[in-house]
Amino acid sequence: MSELNPYFEKVVVITGASSGFGCQASLELARRGAHVVLAARSEQTLHELASQCEMQDGGCAALAVPTDVSRREDVQQLFEMARRRFGKIDAWINNAGVGVIGRFDEVPIEDHEQVIRTDLLGTLYGSYEALRYFRRTGVGVLINVASVVGKIPAPLYTSYVAAKFGVVGFSDALRQELKAEGVDRIHVCTVMPMAHTTEFFEHAGNYSGRESTPIPPVYDPKVTVDKLVQLVVEPEDEVITGWQGPVFNTFHKLLPGAVEKLMSARTQKTQLEDAEPMLATSGTIHEPSSA
User: Fold this and answer.
1) CATH number for the domain including 175?
2) Which residue in the list 7, 157, 160, 207 is annotated as catalytic?
3) Closest CA to 157 of 220, 101, 215
4) Can you give the residue ranges of the Ketoreductase domain (predicted)?
5) Is the pLDDT of residue 3 over 90?
6) Per residue in 210-220, pLDDT tens?
7) Active-site residue 160, yes or no?
């Protein structure tokens, strides 16, 4: 059966599984017959999602592991529980992420720090556990979710940009290590989404004085979810999701100043001029959503 269905009984760890890309990818992987290990801070939401995954047609098993990826010991426990429950790990998706919007010096430094801990250190912790295991088994797929702003910066997202630039460079360096050693059965994939209609902006910290608004163009989350699912069995080094992303990236290499000026103007107009007024909030940076 596994020859006909490459997902059958694959074991996939997914952080940030309680919402957005992580939630939808978990359900789709389960539908295709993969076992899923679900990690996020919201325990009740995770258990509800695990039940939904096990109700899919693929006949999978789902394990919910409440995890704050900014805590190294939580990620270590996630790895141990996944390995103990299923005996193996085939793919690990570092998807957990938070963001904060606002002028750099008007955002509390504690919020900036937590964005870096979650988005960059969380990716580092997950990658460390996954790659050490893949080194022992000789095979595996690590998927790190960055952002197009990890290639092309945007104002008002400074710590998020810093973290995602870090994820892109970190993943590049991991691939260099593996390729230099001739390791060809362990893959490191970097996914860089454009803006999508997920809960990211609803959950983001925001000190801009205006409602959190995605920078256009904005895409259906299915664009990125489909790619995350595909990479589990068909890994690629780097992927920008949202068809205009690769175009922007190419132009940025040729005309970086012009593209960054355009990105700045779009962000300023969308976030500071067109959005409705809103009170300052730290969003779900420090605590999970109660919804």
Assistant:
1) 3.40.50.720
2) 160
3) 101
4) 10-197
5) no
6) 999 998 889 99
7) yes
